[in-house]
Amino acid sequence: MLKRKRDPMSPAERSLRARIAAHAMHARNDPAEITANARATFLAKFEQEADPDGVLPLEERRRRAEHLRSAYFARLALASAKARRTRKPPEQAGDGTTGRPT
Questions:
Q1: Longest distance between any two alpha carbons in the chain, whole Å
Q2: Residue 98 · residue 92 · CB < 8 Å
Q3: Res 7: pLDDT
Q4: Which residue in 88, 42, 84 sits closest to 65, CA to CA?
Q5: Residues of the chain with confidence (pLDDT) below 70
Q6: What is the model's pLDDT at position 1?
Q7: What is the number of helices (H) and of strands (E) in the chain?
């Protein structure tokens, strides 16, 4: 079988090709089913952190893991807010708008 030499794709073209493939995959499959293993592994990380020795009852371990998960996402939200705050704000017109046409 002969291999064709392809022209190298730009990063934008690779990204577009990946987006097309992802949309096609999600059109044929249930997204929840596709990501089930990843979500289970992500949640298991918090359960392990909540009860490293595995001595807590299942419900208590899950309750604590859910709080750890909530704290994780709250930390992400805080970091995002700080990052947005440090960016230079857009120049404002005298009336409080950004001065950009709508």
A1: 68
A2: yes
A3: 80
A4: 42
A5: 1-4, 88-102
A6: 55
A7: 4, 0
